[in-house]
């Protein structure tokens, strides 16, 4: 089923979440993972990677014309990135809400950026902005083999 109604009910929606190099170096990987775990999302994939410039330019290809694009790419190249896939009801939109606004100063307290970051150019994390870009990003960062298939017995405690 691919209708909007079904999508709203889908407990298998997936989003690509990444801890950027500043977040990794500041020791925030565990904190960010913990928030998604505690919320009830299911961890499908997880790795620490140092992608090429090419890989990052493709990831951010929609921003290619922006004046901050070169500094964004060097920021993303400044260290390893913790890449992950989380699955669950409304994972894309809720994932973005958990991250907070792009500009951390505009992010609500209680969000990841609102609690741990100050500037847009050092906003510690990435989250897909739509189901369509999530699918694109997941296949850009992970092979099919890296997307783990397993049963989580806690599902019945998280979903009615
Ligand atoms: P998002 O990460 O909240 O989806 P986007 O607009 O997709 O925000 O921008 C991607 C990333 O590019 C941001 O997370 C931030 O790191 C960086 N960025 C966006 N706008 C600016 C800016 O005006 N100055 C510096 N960096 C920016
Ligand atoms: Mg974005």
From TrEMBL:
Superkingdom of this protein's organism: Eukaryota
Swiss-Prot/TrEMBL cofactor(s): Mg(2+)
Domain spans labelled Nucleoside diphosphate kinase-like: 12-149
Residues spanning the membrane: none
GO BP terms in the entry: CTP biosynthetic process; GTP biosynthetic process; UTP biosynthetic process
Uppermost EC category: transferase
Active site: 126
Keywords carried by this UniProt record: ATP-binding, Kinase, Nucleotide-binding, Signal, Transferase
One function term, GO molecular function aspect: ATP binding
Residues where ATP binds: 20, 68, 96, 102, 113, 123
Catalytic activity: a 2'-deoxyribonucleoside 5'-diphosphate + ATP = a 2'-deoxyribonucleoside 5'-triphosphate + ADP
EC numbers on record: 2.7.4.6
Similarity comment: family membership: Belongs to the NDK family.
Name of this protein: Nucleoside diphosphate kinase
Organism of provenance: Panagrellus redivivus (Microworm)
Full-length numbering of the shown residues: 31 to 190 of 190
């Amino acid at each position: 089923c691919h209708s909007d109604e079904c999508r709203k009910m889908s407990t298998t929606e997936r989003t690509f979440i990444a801890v950027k190099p500043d977040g990794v170096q500041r020791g925030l990987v565990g904190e960010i993972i913990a928030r998604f775990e505690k919320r009830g999302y299911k961890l499908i994939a997880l790795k620490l990677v140092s992608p090429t410039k090419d890989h990052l330019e493709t990831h951010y290809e929609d921003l290619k014309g922006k004046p901050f694009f070169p500094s964004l790419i060097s920021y993303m190249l400044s260290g390893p990135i913790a890449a992950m896939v989380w699955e669950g009801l409304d994972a894309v939109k809720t994932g973005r809400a958990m991250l907070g606004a792009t500009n951390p100063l505009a992010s609500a307290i209680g969000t990841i950026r609102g609690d741990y970051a100050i500037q847009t150019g050092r906003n510690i994390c990435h989250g897909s902005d739509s189901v369509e870009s999530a699918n694109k990003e997941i296949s850009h960062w992970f092979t099919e083999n890296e997307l783990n298939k397993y049963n989580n017995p806690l599902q019945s405690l998280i979903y009615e």
